[in-house]
Write a structure and sequence with these properties.
This protein is mainly alpha-helical. Helix content is 72%, strand content 0%.
């Protein structure tokens, strides 16, 4: 999902579009894998779910900063439902950093990048 990150922090439009397409392909693969399951391993959180915190927590932040629509309930309904379950789970919720300071920090970085381009 590094392509999702690069799609935001890339000033070259061709590079950005390439990374958006790559991110969408990865999300589509995961959408198919989670279909019919609460978590990737079934009913309990597993290692794949923990690795997927980037999708559930970070992608919504970075797409809001850049105005992208990579990940939403219309494009990826199963994966979106999973992301909501994951981020609401007590174990995960306790471990996540506060959203607002992160959002402000990366929004500033994004605005500086765009201003320098």
């Amino acid at each position: 999902m590094g392509a999702a990150w690069k799609s935001v922090f890339s000033v070259d439009e061709k590079e950005r579009e390439k990374n958006v397409q790559e991110a969408l392909e990865g999300l589509k693969f995961l959408e198919d894998e989670i279909k019919g399951k609460k978590f990737f391993g079934g009913e309990e959180i597993g290692l794949v779910d923990i690795g997927g915190v980037f999708i559930a927590f970070w992608i919504p932040i970075i797409q809001e900063i850049a105005g992208l629509q990579l990940f939403n309930s219309e494009k990826f309904p199963n994966l979106y439902k999973w992301s909501q379950e994951l981020t609401k789970h007590s174990v995960v919720k306790e471990a996540l950093p506060p959203r607002e300071p992160l959002f402000a920090f990366f929004k500033g970085r994004y605005e500086n990048l765009i201003a320098s381009a």
